[in-house]
């Protein structure tokens, strides 16, 4: 079956569209394209992400993003010469604007919640293709944290009979999937290690007045000096004292975190260098704590793999353990999460569970997503 996965992540950098052929556990990428958000769109999304916002603004953005997602799929088909009528199913992640995977007291009851926008009905109507969306809610309803959901796909793609592997994705948030040799699904360990590109990108946008949205190749970080006093404070963040399964987002490392950095009045290159060091440290700590083998292979994906300075510092922290790009396994590092939601949609279509309770903390495996017919 040919399935499209549409993903927009916490980095708020744009829309990723992956088209894949899937037959049971066989996954073959067909096409991929990334469409950046316009600055006005990114600003509008930031204004409603983990923020006090007007319900009308959220409603309009929900339908507006549906139009953008449909446009992105149609444009990808056109640019890659993929017939749209060859696609039978769309897996639509949507744009997360709030995620609270751990229950908090709300009106006398412990409530965990998640909220992704990007109206599936619009995508189905514009494309004529069945859409499966809203994957995270069912895991939360089953007692999970709604994240991470990619580990099942990491398990299908990267597990090995004799080698420890860690699938690492560095997006806005960084996450790992630890795959022991001959791992069974219930033996997989997966969680968010902490910040990925989120704080770095926000600092670059502030430094350049929005002209740049990320630290290309890590050149700004490399030009700055790490503030070790600040880095030591970051390492004491309560998130790192929590045991997996756990999930992070803008609630921990978003606007308030970045505003606190800027308020220090340190030179912005130094802040970017320190934020980059923080990401490398937190990712490496997660890997070393969860995959004890000195011969572990790290399979890296996500936008962070293009930050050469970040990857160099990560290698230093990992004491030169082997880091391979997911491209070596036929998976474009920028496409992996979009591919993952295509696979989760396929599993939902077949009535198969899409979560790993060992990763999310859910009581049981459940079928994820809601279906919108064209």
H and E order: EEEHHEEEHEHHEEEHHHHHHEHEHHE
Distance between the termini: 17 Å
Structural class of the helices, strands and pairings? alpha/beta
**Binned strand content:** 15-25%
Q: Number of DSSP strands?
A: 13
- Average pLDDT figure: 95
Low-confidence stretches: none
Note the total helix count. Answer: 14
Strand order of the largest sheet: 3-2-1-4-7-13
**Helix-residue proportion:** 25-40%
- Based on CA atoms alone, the radius of gyration comes out at 20 Å
Gross geometry: globular
Question: What does this protein look like?
Answer:
- With 374 residues, the chain is an alpha/beta fold.
- It has helices at residues 39-48, 55-80, 120-127, 136-141, 151-158, 198-207, 219-223, 228-235, 250-253, 255-263, 268-290, 308-317, 336-349, 357-360; strands spanning 2-7, 14-23, 26-36, 89-92, 95-106, 109-117, 130-133, 165-170, 173-179, 189-195, 297-301, 323-325, 370-372.
- The strands form three sheets. The protein has a six-stranded mixed β-sheet with strand order 3-2-1-4-7-13. A five-stranded mixed β-sheet has the order 10-9-8-11-12. It has a two-stranded antiparallel ribbon with strand order 5-6.
- Helix 6 packs antiparallel against helix 11 and helix 11 packs across helix 12.
- It is globular.
- It starts with a strand and ends with a strand.
- The model has no long low-confidence stretch (mean pLDDT 95).
